[in-house]
Amino acid sequence: MDDYGPLYAAVARVNSHAMQRDVYSSVFLKAAALLETLVRPPCPEHSNERFAWHSAEAYLALNGYRRSRALMPLVSTVS
Fold first, then answer.
1. Which of 17, 29, 63, 70 fits 24 for a cystine, CB–CB 3.0-4.6 Å?
2. Are residues 24 and 30 in contact, defined by beta-carbon separation less than 8 angstroms?
3. CA 18, CA 55: separation in Å to the nearest integer?
4. Are residues 39 and 49 in contact, defined by beta-carbon separation less than 8 angstroms?
5. Nearest alpha-carbon partner for 55 in 78, 71, 31
6. What gap in Å lies between CA 26 and CA 8, rounded to an integer?
């Protein structure tokens, strides 16, 4: 990676506040914002989608959520 700015921007977007309230109210909305922010910039040279997906998945896991078996077919088509 040459530029860490987009990665810092993704973290800042997830943690953003407006009028003393979280912009993204649930953990799932925060993970979606992280995923969307990481897919767009060209900072990782290869596999932006895979990197973004695993980052969002790790974010949810760190907040106590695990991938359910119902999403397994969906996950296999993404990666």
1. 29
2. yes
3. 24
4. yes
5. 31
6. 20
14 CB-contact burial (10 Å; exposed 0-12 / middle 13-18 / buried 19+): buried
Token duo for residue 47: 């596999």
Size (the chain), residues: 79
Amino acid at 9: A
Per-residue pLDDT of the chain (79 residues; tens, 9 = 90+): 677 787 888 888 888 889 989 888 888 888 888 888 888 776 556 667 777 888 888 888 888 877 665 444 444 444 4
Rounded to a whole number of angstroms, the CA Rg of the chain reads 13
d(CA 11, CA 77): 26
The reply to whether the predicted model has a pTM over 0.70 is: no
Residue type, 74: L
